[in-house]
Amino acid sequence: MSAQQKAKTRAALADSIRTRRSELIDMTAELVRVSSENPPGNTHAVAEVAARLLSAPGVDVEVVASRPPIVNVIARVRGAASGRRLVYNGHLDTYPIGDASHWSVDPLGGVVKDGRLYGRGAADMKGGIACSILATRLLAERRDAWTGEVVVTLAGDEESMGPHGTQFLLEKFPHASGDAMITGDAGSPDVLRFGEKGMIWIDLTAHGKAAHGAHVHLGINAIDRLMLALIAVFELRELPVTLPEAVDAAIDAAAAVSEAISGVGESQTLRRITVNCGVFEGGTLRNIMPASAKATLDIRLPAGIKVADIEARLAAVLDNREGIEYRIIRRFEALWSDPSHEIVSYLMRAGHEARGRKPVANYRVGGSDARLYRLRNVPSYVCGLTPFNMGAPDEYVDLDELYAVACMHTLAGFDYLSRGAPESLP
């Protein structure tokens, strides 16, 4: 295909996104209207809806249960000839709704008002899924204009960082992997995310000896032991960190735009180890010394720090501490893709066309299934929607952002697949 023909096809794709904006909104609303809270993690119904929305000429769709009620979707479109494979990844599960009385709208209503679409999962990440679905359908309609493959992987087990969603698909289906991956997970069309911090989740338990609070000489307070252990773990935050040069430079370059969206201080958080105690439990009465206490910890690791380094530090401060035991529940390395990869330039170009301003590329404080692709050396990038009220009442997406992300997924996908040498894929 000549450069002129490619330009014509690309322009037609851009026109199609504009004319099908209402379809994009309707798809997002339809996905939001199906409950997929995790817990309990039942994604059967929403997987069926997503599969139906993906179904179109040229699109092969499969609904796959991993560990019921966790259900996933994988779809595939083949282009005019062999070539590179682009994956659109997303997750179908959402945070719980919580107390619905705190919402100003029906949390499963998919309500549209004042340029916003409300509902649990609208931003994280059913709006992003709708963008990838529309991109896939539009590319399928013009599959004679590009080479390679488009694959969509929609996971039912992401909010708990579990293994039964994207990891399951990658292990079961060779074509779930590819040469590059875009996910519409929570983010911003103005800030592309090329990497994310590592993570260690810990359950920490303290054992003591119960006694009356007036007779402290007869007991051992488990909460005292637990607090001292926590102080030792919190000292991890003071460890020096040296970031890889490319990551450090990207954080600096993106700071003004990124912090305006994600909050002042994000750049510093990206550069340091953070420790959060999410649960602290112990005791029954104020005048009884507790025999046991427990806490859960979330430790996030910047680029340049390995999980093994932190595990060694934990062992040093906890292993020989009397009355203390701990268990590591989850561990993920800090991973990143090349911030100058060609697909980043395609996403930036499409973002500028849709928004009138060029996005920046930055690291990400939170986790996503992009790490599972990076573990397989697949360059992976988050291009999603600003998570307004994510996990809180009145979660919503901005409809202009929804349109912009759909443009970015579609046009960057076409740019990536309409050029580049074929590669051998399973």
What's this, in brief?
The protein is built from 12 helices and 18 strands.
Description of the molecule:
- It is a single chain.
- This protein is an alpha+beta fold and 426 residues long.
- The protein folds into 2 domains: 3-195 and 334-417, Zn peptidases (Aminopeptidase); 198-331, Alpha-Beta Plaits (2-Layer Sandwich), CATH 3.30.70.360.
- It is 36% helix and 23% strand.
- The strands form 5 sheets. The chain has a 6-stranded mixed sheet with strand order 1-2-6-3-7-17. It has a 4-stranded antiparallel sheet with strand order 11-13-9-14.
- Helix 2 (21-32) crosses helix 4 (122-141) and helix 10 (342-355) packs antiparallel against helix 12 (399-417).
- The chain is elongated, with a radius of gyration of 23 Å.
Give a quick set of tags describing it:
disordered C terminus; Alpha-Beta Plaits; Aminopeptidase; 426 residues; alpha+beta; 36% helix
CATH superfamily of the largest domain: Zn peptidases
- Strand proportion, as a percent range, falls in 15-25%
- Kindly provide the radius of gyration, computed on alpha-carbon positions and rounded to a whole number of angstroms: 23 Å
CATH class group of the largest domain: Alpha Beta
CATH topology of the largest domain: Aminopeptidase
- What is the average of the pLDDT values? 96
Classification by helices and strands:
alpha+beta
Instruction: Measure the end-to-end span.
Output: 26 Å
Question: How many DSSP-defined strands?
Answer: 18
Largest sheet: 6 strands, mixed
Number of helices: 12
Please tell me the CATH architecture of the largest domain by its name. 3-Layer(aba) Sandwich
| Uncertain parts | 420-426
Strand order of the largest sheet: 1-2-6-3-7-17
- The number of domains is 2
